[in-house]
Specification:
heterotrimer; A mainly alpha; B alpha/beta; C mainly alpha; A: mainly alpha; 2 strands; globular; C: mainly alpha; 14 helices; disordered N terminus
Chain lengths: ~270, ~400, ~325
């Protein structure tokens, strides 16, 4: 489900702005670290859960204003390299602010026990993460498909020129969508922090996985991100246990097969 | 046209001279070059080792009027970068002794250049067995451990405790496999049997759920595990929330619950039994002094990595002393290092003449609850453990 | 991705300046080799090899219009195949380099057949994923030494000619020779009808679709040549260092390669060499002094991407024009 939160954010950025954001993993890491700081100061996990994504969205907003605005029309290579530079900066800034130690955040007390699901005991915090994932998926769906702003967003994605003619402020929409995408990365970071911990290097670990999910699902498609993350998450978790011989390459194989059959991803436009 | 050429030329000709600057070789300075990670994900280990080594040097004002200078080489945990830094430290900075590295792949990369240039290398961490076996050298001294050395005693110890069956779990890379096979050999020799084993993709495993299910169902009495860094934290927390500890004993290589990770693992680590070459709870004068000095200076509890760095510093000082400060002959310096025996925070250390790997005590510990963060309580001490050092011709 | 084609129109094509820059770079490298010490010679050899890698990316980006984030895979293919040829099969290192070139070309051909149809961003992502797949495989492969890599790889033995390859001086020259050879070959291809066609195709999207299938063929050719060149770089790299480990195949290596050509100026070939030298020297020097060098390097990357469209090449070209003008007045 973390994968979904991450890839939903990335797919929004990718699909809407045609920006390959390699720094998405860095935002995820920064989200987790900001959450850590808020949690340490306020000792409230819930506050961290709400504030960390907001701060990450703010960082996204600033990044867009300062950098992405200029390269939005430029070629993909420049975008990729720009965000590549951001990875470096992200890694070192985290080190300068938070040091190099690994940290962890405790889940709030109500979520720290186990629940029996289908005869197996299952940590309740994990169920909470799944719940958050479903909640966000539902909210995004309603937002994009059922509201007026959502309609404007879709219009700006499908036909920016036409949208401009219809007096939709595409620039503004793009900024907020970018910030939303970054905020989702931050949300993913803080949500999984109680399970996976907070440490430098966590950005790289999720980046490639997230990119694959987006490619498999089809960039710009929320449904694709959801299905893609479930598929890749499942294959990644169970594939390596049951077929350890190809554990390392199984997700790439899934991607290769998908692309051979559907070059634009499962739900690509 | 020629004039343009000349213009570019002037610009570029300055570049080479950046590298030609030869350092004056001051006789009164002992130059120690470090090859440790100062950037990237293993930075914390590089810092711990360097900090503690400097602490050792600071305690010693000067040796025979010589000052010790530490020149840092950042390996970035990339073998090719490390190799290039090794060449720089050896040929441009003209260091007397190299200290490093943290990871085994880096150690293997720089091994040949160190031996060819006859520069004494002290390894303060990297554990690959071959470094003091087939790839051993009189210029390479390992003050830390070999992967075998830490894990093998645990196999014997657990078999002696009456544990009959175990399940192995480690990341899928060279060190993970070496540790598991060392444990397996001794555990089986002691009468135990391995019911199953899993190797998880290195640094790519976040969800241990499926593995935990498998381990639960294996029916083994104990799990023997090795993880480090974020994976160690995740694994311990996930195993705890799945209630694995209620079914079987969770044991493993001691790094899994290193003092570096305990603040993050907290009570989830309680009950873990591991083996390591140092635990902070060792009650000796050396260790208590060291702990106090380290906490005073760096404001955190030293880890086994810090101790390895500190002992490296001590060994260097003793070696220089034993040569009365004359370190101009590198072969003599290397052999002086290999003849040192010191008592450091982790107990008495000597160098095995057969392989140049350290001979040291291995501590079997259990994680128990402490004031704020859990502590490591020593259950057993296995004296003077050696690496078999097979395949080494010194 | 039409905009990609549009934006890459400004290819730095200027054979004369290219040659001049190349000569200057080689001469300064030679001076460093002659006057530098042990370390400098190794360093120059390393830069020469990285330049070969950068040139392969440059060729692919400028002639094929393809940006690959998985090119380190070919570096790895060259490196590992050379290792196996030398250590397991006892083939002489020089022939091993040639063989690994062929293997690199073949695998490049195979892969490109499937992936060149993908457009801009997709191509980047897929190459990234392929590269990571290779990295993951190498990392656990027992045959290839796994995470610890393989060491003890030897260099070409030409002692019968009275030359000792283990002397860093000789090996630096040897690497420079390879670099020059590849420079001339890539320059020839670029100037040839094939190269001009590639350029024309990339710049003109309409014509590209008009001749349909041929575009794909051209892209495949560009990708194959580029993979072969990257394999040579990999092959030389193991001979230089005497060891190979999976880190060489990580996707960030490809990313750094792309940064090198952006800094140097895409499409100019000798700009790739310049970029490789500048980026590598910068990284090396910075990391000796400050531990947070990544922050600075990252910032510089961003500045170059934002403000220097044609990299250092563009700067030199402008400078040269100004000088020319000044001269004409007199």
């Amino acid at each position: 489900m973390t994968l979904f939160l991450l890839s939903a954010g990335l797919t929004i950025i990718f699909g809407l702005m045609k920006i390959v954001n390699l720094a998405h993993g860095s935002l995820y890491m920064i989200g987790a670290y900001i959450g850590l700081s808020i949690w340490t100061i306020s000792t409230s996990f819930w506050l961290a859960l709400i504030l960390a994504p907001l701060f990450t969205a703010l960082i996204g907003y600033l990044l867009y204003q300062v950098l992405f605005r200029h390269i939005q029309i430029a070629d993909p290579m420049r975008q990729v390299l720009l965000t590549f530079g951001l990875i470096y900066i992200g890694l070192d800034s985290v080190r300068l602010f938070w040091g190099t130690m690994s940290h962890s955040i405790s889940a709030p007390n109500i979520l720290s026990n186990s629940i029996i699901v289908l005869g197996e005991s299952y940590p309740s915090y994990r169920l909470f993460v799944i719940f958050i994932g479903i909640l966000i998926a539902a909210l995004l769906y309603i937002f994009l498909e059922k509201t007026k702003i959502g309609a404007k967003v879709r219009a700006s994605v499908d036909d920016p020129e036409m949208a401009k003619l219809l007096r939709i402020d595409t620039d503004k929409i793009l900024i907020y969508m970018f910030a939303l995408g970054c905020g989702l990365a931050g949300l993913a970071g803080i949500t999984v922090a109680p399970i996976l911990g907070v440490e430098p290097g966590m950005d790289m670990e999720v980046l490639v996985l997230t990119l694959i999910v987006v490619v498999v699902g089809g960039p710009g498609s929320l449904k694709g991100a959801l299905i893609g993350s479930l598929l890749i998450g499942f294959v990644d978790s169970y594939g390596k246990v049951y077929i350890p011989e190809i554990a390392q390459i199984i997700i790439y194989a899934v991607m290769a097969v998908t692309l051979l059959l559907k070059p634009n991803g499962l739900y690509g436009r | 046209m020629i004039s343009f050429l000349f213009r570019y030329f002037k610009l570029l000709i300055t570049l080479p001279f950046l590298f030609c600057v030869a350092n004056a070789n001051d006789k009164n300075i002992i130059k120690i070059g470090t090859l440790l990670p100062y950037s990237g994900v293993y930075t914390v280990l590089g810092e711990e080792i360097t900090n503690a080594m400097k602490l050792a040097f600071e305690e010693q004002e000067d040796i025979f009027d010589k000052k010790i200078e530490v020149i840092r080489g950042d390996t970035e945990v990339k073998p090719n970068i490390a190799l290039q830094k090794a060449r720089k430290l050896i040929s441009s900075d003209k260091v007397d002794i190299l200290v490093g590295p943290v990871s085994s792949s880096v150690a293997l990369a720089i091994r040949d250049v160190v031996v060819q240039t006859k520069t004494p290398l002290i390894i303060p961490n990297a554990g690959a067995n071959v470094l003091t076996r087939e790839k051993c050298s009189k210029f390479i001294t390992r003050i830390s451990f070999s992967n075998h050395q830490i894990n093998a005693p645990m196999g014997t110890w657990m078999a002696n405790q009456g544990i009959k069956t175990a399940f192995l779990l480690a990341p899928d890379y060279a060190a993970g496999k070496e540790m598991m096979s060392a444990f397996r050999d001794n555990f089986e020799a002691g009468g135990g049997s391995i019911l199953g084993e899993e190797y998880t993709p290195f640094r790519k495993t976040k969800d241990f759920g499926p593995y935990l299910a498998r381990i639960k169902n294996s029916g083994a009495e104990a799990l023997y595990v090795f993880y480090a860094g974020g994976e160690a934290i995740n694994f311990i927390k996930q195993a705890h929330s799945f209630g694995l500890g209620d079914i079987m004993k969770i044991t493993g290589a001691g790094w899994t619950t290193s003092p570096l990770f305990l603040p993050a693992q907290k009570d989830a680590a309680l009950g873990f039994i591991g083996s390591l070459n140092y635990v902070p709870s060792i009650d000796s004068v050396e260790n208590n002094n060291f702990k106090k000095a380290y906490i005073d200076k760096y404001d955190r509890v030293p880890s086994e990595f810090a101790v390895q760095g500190y002992d490296t510093g001590k060994v260097i000082i003793e070696a220089v002393k034993s040569l009365s400060g004359d370190i101009s002959n590198k072969e003599k310096l290397a052999s002086a290092i290999n003849n040192i025996s010191v008592t450091g925070p982790r107990g008495p250390l000597t160098i095995d003449k057969k392989s140049n790997n350290v001979i040291q005590n291995i501590y079997i510990f259990e994680v128990v609850s402490g004031d704020n963060i859990p502590e490591l309580k020593i259950l057993d001490t296995i004296q003077a453990v050696k690496d078999p050092g097979s395949g080494c011709n010194l | 991705m039409d905009y990609m084609e549009d934006k890459m129109k400004a290819v730095n094509y200027n054979p004369r300046l290219r040659l001049h820059l190349f000569i200057v770079l080689v001469v300064s490298a030679l001076i460093s080799i002659f006057f530098g010490g042990y370390f400098t010679r190794f360093f120059i050899a390393e830069i020469a090899i990285l330049s070969i890698f950068a040139m392969s990316l440059d060729f692919l980006a400028a002639r094929g219009g393809l940006v690959s984030l998985g090119h380190a895979m070919f570096l790895g293919i060259g490196a590992y195949s050379t290792t196996i040829f030398i250590l397991n099969l006892g083939i002489s290192p020089f022939i091993a380099t040639i063989l690994s070139l062929l293997i690199g070309c073949f695998i490049g051909l195979l892969i490109s057949y499937f992936i060149v149809v993908l457009n801009g961003i997709f191509f980047i992502m897929v190459t990234l994923a392929l590269g990571e797949m290779f990295h993951a495989w190498v990392f656990t492969s027992e045959l290839l030494g796994g995470s610890d890599g393989i060491s003890g790889i030897i260099r070409p033995d030409i002692s019968f000619m009275g030359i000792d390859m283990n002397d860093p001086f000789i090996f630096a020259i040897y690497s420079l020779l390879w670099m020059s050879l590849i420079y001339f070959i890539l320059s020839r291809i670029t100037d040839s009808p094939l190269g001009r066609n590639l350029d024309a195709l990339r710049q003109n999207h309409m014509r590209l679709s008009a001749i349909g299938g041929y575009a794909k063929v051209y892209k495949i050719i560009a990708f194959t040549i580029s993979s072969g060149v990257a394999s040579i770089a990999g092959s030389l790299y193991v001979q230089l260092n005497g060891f190979i480990s999976p880190e060489l195949t990580h996707w960030t290596v490809s990313g750094e390669g792309l940064i090198m050509i952006i800094v140097g100026g895409i499409g100019s070939i000798s700009g790739a060499i310049l970029g490789a030298s500048v980026v590598y020297i910068l990284q090396h020097e910075l990391s000796n002094f400050i531990s947070w060098w990544m922050l600075i390097v990252g910032l510089l990357f961003i500045l170059v991407v934002l403000f220097m469209q044609d990299g250092l090449w563009g700067l030199i070209e402008k400078l040269r024009l100004r000088l020319l003008k000044g001269k004409n007045k007199i």
